[in-house]
Amino acid sequence: MKIELPQVGESVTEGVIGKWLKQIGDRVEKFDPLVEVVTDKVNMEMPSPVTGTLTSIIATEGETVPMGGLIAEIEIEGEEPASVATAPADEPQPSVVNRTGELLKDVAPVGPTGGVLHMESDTPAPSGRKRYSPAVLRLADEHDIDLSRIEGTGMNGRITRKDVQQAIDQGIAAPGPAPVAPQTPTAPSAPGTDEERVPLTPIRRLIAENMVKSATLIPQAWTTVEVDVSGLIQRRQAVRTEFQEREGINITYLPFVIKALAESLKENPLLNSSWGGDSIILKKRINIGVAMATSEGLMVPVIHDADTLSIAGLAKRVRDLTERARQGKLRLEDVQGGTFTANNTGVLGSVESKPLVNYPQAAIMTTEAIVKRPVVINDAIAIRSMMNLCMSFDHRIMDGAEASGFINAVKARLEAIDADTGVY
Fold first, then answer.
1. Rounded-to-integer distance, Cα 330 and Cα 320, Å
2. Are 398 and 410 within one domain?
3. Catalytic annotation, pick one of 304, 395, 418, 420
4. Burial of 71 (0-12, 13-18, 19+ CB in 10 A)
5. What is the pLDDT of residues 282-320, one digit of tens each?
6. What is the CATH number for 245?
7. Do 236 and 378 fall within a single domain?
8. Are residues 278 and 354 in the same domain?
9. 340-343 and 363-367: which strand pairing?
10. Is residue 310 part of a domain?
């Protein structure tokens, strides 16, 4: 039986084979963990759909595979090997066997979730041109890339999004006269005696690809404001003990910030949007992603409908997501649907940072370290607890006026926190 990579969500188009949990010749039971798969959303263990013996591993560790692509074969006990279909005598036999199977004319293959699976094929279309996936075509169109000049590294030589992105990064494959290639080696040089090469983990590779996508596809601007959070500190300190006794968890500054963010996003919907090419797509739900550092790399679990939660509700949701992120137990739905991202870089000691927008969102905000310093209030010098808010935003979607209006709305809400601010 051919084992395909199952479709796990509309926005997930491909996955990286992280680690095979079974080896060729191993017996596997139905629902036993078979392979670890890393997507741009989450890590997951794919269970075996059948009971049998693993006879072939087709997608090796580190390989990028489209959803629905063939990754392995399992021989089911008592099942007769499938007979090989022969082509009509008047049709030439293929010289190379395609392990993903032959694409039958006028027949739509069915994917693992029951929907129609649009397989990529290197067979020329009737026009004589190769067929490419929608994601590849979209990225090529955005950067005016001539796909015929790119050599595919995917299964059976297909062109992947990574191939197109690499062509963009290297400044090649544009129509017309070929630009001068950068004077850099085409392959990584061997490390010297005083160097060590550290192989990329699948999740590190995906983080790198997403960061390149953000920096390449989004024209980003940056702004910052300083916030007097003395009232926030006093309010948190006043409720901390009671909250710990009542809820069993510590209340941090982050839920207060997320509450201010959610309320400000309702007033400034342009910040809760994405670029649609010929339009701006406003998001009706406020789903705030919270960037978290884990041993596996950066994760951004999402608090869905954050505007409907109290500060206490946000504190419990942040705690739950943080624990499961560090334990590697996030579900796919935990990392999908984000419309805005917050990152508490202050816990790392940072006082000012310039984050990259979490593609395809419109903006990302960081909260920096809280520092006591002298400030002028009513012509007098006072010692206050100050924190910087830093924000990067998509300059296609908004200008400085809209970005400043939003970040100052967050500032005003944080500075308004006092002894009367409700937690529940």
1. 10
2. yes
3. 395
4. buried
5. 999 999 999 998 887 889 999 999 999 999 999 999 999
6. 3.30.559.10
7. yes
8. yes
9. parallel
10. yes
Domain count, the chain: 3
- How long a stretch of residues is the chain? 424
Asked if 271 and 362 count as a contact pair (C-beta separation under 8 A), the reply is yes
- On whether the CB atoms of residues 337 and 374 are closer than 8 A, the answer is no
Split at pLDDT 50, 70, 90, the class of 38 is: confident
Q: Is 395 among the residues known to form the active site?
A: yes
Strand residue runs (E) in 14-76: 14-20, 27-28, 33-38, 43-47, 52-57, 64-66, 70-76
* Domain limits for position 302: 219-415
The tens digit of pLDDT for each residue in 70-85 reads: 999 999 876 655 444 4
Please name the residues in contact with 391: beta carbons below 8 A apart, sequence gap of 6 or more: 222, 223, 224, 363, 364, 365, 366, 403, 406, 407
pTM over 0.70: no
Catalytic-role residue among 228, 399, 418, 420: 399
Assess whether 141 carries a catalytic annotation. Answer: no
CA distance 41 to 11: 9
CA distance readout (Å), 71 to 34, 127, 284: 11, 31, 38
Token pair in block for residue 418? 């006092």
For position 163, what pLDDT does the model report? 81
Give the position of tokens 């997501």. 321
Residues 6 or more apart in contact with residue 106 via CB below 8 angstroms: none
Note whether 232 and 168 are same-domain residues.
no
CB-based burial of residue 159 (10 Å sphere; 0-12 exposed, 13-18 middle, 19+ buried)? buried
